Amino acid sequence: MTAADLLHPEIETLDPAALRRLQETRFAAQWAYLGSSSALYRERLGAALAAPMDLDRIAALPLTEKETIRLTQERRPPYGEHVACAETEIVRLHRTSGMTGRALVMAQTAADAATTAAVGARAMRSAGLRPDDRVVHCLNYCLWTGGVTDHLILEAAGATVIPFGVGNTRELIAAIRELGANAISCTPSYPALLEKLLAEEGGIAPRDLGLTLALFGGEPGLDNPSFRQRLEAVWGFRVRNANYGLSEVLSILGSQCETTEDLHFHAGDAVFAELLDPATGERLPIRAGTVGELVATHLGKRCQPLLRYRTRDILTVTGDGRCGCGRSAWRFRVTGRTDDMFNVRGVNVFPTAVRAVIAGLETLSTGHFRIALAGPGPYDRIELTVEAAAGSAESGWADAARTIETAIRRQIGAAARVRMVAAETLPRTAGKTNWIERSPSR
Length: 442
Fold this sequence. Notes:
By secondary structure, this protein is α/β, with parallel strands linked by helices. About 30% of the residues lie in helices and about 25% in strands. The chain folds into two domains: about 1-265, ANL, N-terminal domain (Rossmann fold, 3-Layer(aba) Sandwich), CATH 3.40.50.12780; about 340-440, 2-Layer Sandwich (GMP Synthetase, Chain A, domain 3), CATH 3.30.300. The strands form four sheets. It has a twelve-stranded mixed beta sheet with strand order 4-3-5-6-7-8-9-14-13-12-10-11. Strands 19-18-17-20 form a four-stranded mixed beta sheet, with helices on one face. The chain has a two-stranded antiparallel sheet with strand order 1-2. Helix 5 (about 110-125) crosses helix 6 and helix 10 crosses helix 11 (about 395-410). The model has no long low-confidence stretch (mean pLDDT about 90).
């Protein structure tokens, strides 16, 4: 790794004290902007906006919830009071995926879009993307930010981008081969869809496509070593967790580098991050070993600025010193979501923990599963449908189910009831996979 591999070395190598000074300077201007331009925060904070504020003291300010933004957009569609700039400054609109409630309308000014592209490009360069790469981008080009926004991020990283989107998988395979793509940007579950088609076509192995780099995001699972190793063995590409972000904050603000599988927080000059104890709301120090909910404050957003926004993502800090790649940003893993968490007889359960258990039993299962939750909870057990390993005999499924139930009880501390189904039973998706299926009380 050399300085040339860093897209913005003047930011990416800043020591923590210098970064904090930069953040304070930018926040002072942002605080003044909220007071003059944000109807949402004038309503929420009132006269407090007239007094000076710094990043230590914002810990006493109220959190901004997604539901607050959702309600204001319902009252005054499409933006509500969440837009702080003139409407003539807005250059692009998106919607969130809506996987955790009614979709939000997200808007950007040209300056916001430029910041999004710059920070995301750092993440892609960190993950190994270079100007001599041709990357086929296979995320939805509809209203979701993962399409056009991440496309522009890939361009900002210097690569040649092939804007494919999702669907038409036969045409995708032809395009990869004919256009000489060597990298792919998609969700981690998408290669399984391609493998299925390649098997149906016959005679084409995944390695034959010549992909050498996979830039993944949008779903959990890449923290599982066996999942990564299988992808790399089957496809022959380097697996990179390259695309951690939140549409409301920044499309991409975290990715791994080539020396660690943990994620760097690349957005320190654009977003001030707090980690809060989910139970008490207390701010926690960002240092190795800390586990907390990410709360984000924009340092220069013009269109839809956020102050102390609850992301609901639970992060575990894995490092806070300079990385072997030369970057000084702290590193982390996403270990759950507070809004996906459910309670089983007093035990808080995250779907990512269930996924980790099942993925660790790869001889029994394909790794695909669904959790069924009936009603609001709490629940007596985890109700699971799990795909059996390809080619396994149905006569052995009962033993496999018991083994999975035992592993879940041992590793998570909750009871489970597992129903095994044949491989390829559960739907595959080109977008985000939702591991929980919710229904009203029986």
